[in-house]
Amino acid sequence: QVQLVESGGGLVQFGGSLRLSCAASGSIFSSYAMAWYRQGPGKQRELVAGITSGGATNYADSVKGRFTISRDNAKNTVYLQMNSLKPEDTAVYYCNANRRLLAIVWDYWGQGTQVTVSS
């Protein structure tokens, strides 16, 4: 079992920056792939960025060059540094932990943190 708690959301102006954190507890954090998803008003949840247990990263095209995902296994925490924020980045951001072993999948979600970018 993994518990995920996001923090760092808030209101920021166009072009500003925020850093989201997701603290994990309850299991072996380093063995999980971690990701940030977001869900904007009236939109489906979408993948923003992911990082594997080995540190490989991937990003949605809409955030490449602006957002950076990282993890600190010693602190059981994954981060999302968001720069050059735009109003279209406004959403609830969710942390996800995922692990697969053969046919077994572990998948956990945080409660979400609101990010609002004003123009």
Helix/strand order? EEEEEEEEEEE
Helical content band = under 10%
Global mean pLDDT: 95
SS-derived structural category? mainly beta
Q: Between the first and last Cα atoms, what is the distance in angstroms?
A: 40 Å
Main beta-sheet strand count, sense and barrel state = 7 strands, mixed
How many helices? The count is 0
Q: Rough shape?
A: elongated
- The portion of residues forming beta strands comes to over 45%
Give me the Rg, rounded.
14 Å
Low-confidence stretches: none
Strand runs, count: 11
Write structural notes for this entry:
- The protein is mainly beta.
- Helix content is 0%, strand content 57%.
- It contains no helices and eleven strands.
- It has strands spanning 3-7, 10-13, 18-25, 33-39, 46-51, 57-59, 67-72, 77-82, 91-101, 104-109, 113-118.
- Strands 2, 4, 5, 6, 9, 10 and 11 form a seven-stranded mixed β-sheet that branches.
- The chain starts with a strand and ends with a strand.
- 29% of the residues are buried.
- The model has no long low-confidence stretch (mean pLDDT 95).
Tell me the layout of helices and strands.
Elements: E1 3-7, E2 10-13, E3 18-25, E4 33-39, E5 46-51, E6 57-59, E7 67-72, E8 77-82, E9 91-101, E10 104-109, E11 113-118
Parallel strand pairs: 2-11
Antiparallel strand pairs: 1-3, 3-8, 4-5, 4-9, 5-6, 7-8, 9-10, 9-11
List its traits:
single chain; 119 residues; mainly beta; four-stranded antiparallel β-sheet; 57% strand
Summarize the structure.
The chain is an all-beta fold and 119 residues long. It is 0% helix and 57% strand. The chain is built from no helices and eleven strands.
